[in-house]
Design brief:
This protein is α/β, with parallel strands linked by helices. It has 2 domains: 165 residues, Trna Endonuclease, Chain: A, domain 1, CATH 3.40.1350; 132 residues, no CATH class. 48% of the residues lie in helices and 8% in strands. Strands 1-2-3-4-5 form a 5-stranded mixed sheet.
Amino acid sequence: MKYAYEDLSDAQFESLIVLLCQRLLGISVQGFAKGPDGGRDAKFVGTAELHPSRAAPWVGTTIIQAKHTNGYNRNFSESDFYSATSNNTVFSKEIPSIKKLRTNKQLDHYMFFANRRLAGNAESEICTYISKECDIPKASIYLCGLEQLEIWLKTFPDVPKLANLDPVDSPLIVSPDDLAEVVQAIARQKTDVLAVLDAPPTLRVLYEHKNSLNNMSDEYAKELRKKYLKETTQIRAFLAAPENLDLLRMYESVVDEFQLKIIAKRKDYQTFDEVMEYLVDLLFNRDPVLRQHAHKRLTRAVLFYMYWNCDIGEVGDVKTD
């Protein structure tokens, strides 16, 4: 079960990590209030229950840090997060605090958690870096990325519940990757696609009727139609071209994901205006391609096409428009 860690607050993520460490180390793991943490978000003093193993647990003072990001698909190897040659990264800024704790005999073991992907070579390199800089044995350093975090939350299913981290109630989260490829491809060929007056692609519900079914406001619906209606013919022609079959399959995959997530996650009181704007904001925040100035309008046009073409949203009885 995957969780939308990016949409948690920093405090929520830190609370989740403290609860998890109480299972791994012991119930006396102590979390700290928000503020200058001196290189620690939590600590444990004693003999660990499970970590690294029951047979050879850590003994002494374990310092725990959690670094949360709202970014999507981030990893430990990004230059602003870790670089052996830079003093302006997340890790380099933590080194003085860790050193101080180690020098003052307030740190025997160090655990670091982040909602980022952690490759094996990055784990080895960063552990070596911390060990060398702070004089901590590599066996006393543990880095945890998304992959291991998911495994542990499956092992301790009560932890997400205690942290109010429920995938059923999580926000409407969709992947922008395939859509970014579709938008880029349309942008490249857009000038070669014949611009003609729009006509509905197939039998479909009346636009006004669909707006009523989906609780989209008249003002928002009129603005969408005014700005993006003519774009729908170009998008449809592009997706229908035989040479773009792979991109059509990507588009179909995207609309399937969007539609199912909208059905599952949309709250009864939300207007479809809110759904559309939430999707736009989420896509722009998560994909640098989509938030490029040249692609922003086209991204909105593709989302409107999905709605206009009855690929997302409720449809009701089919009527000619």
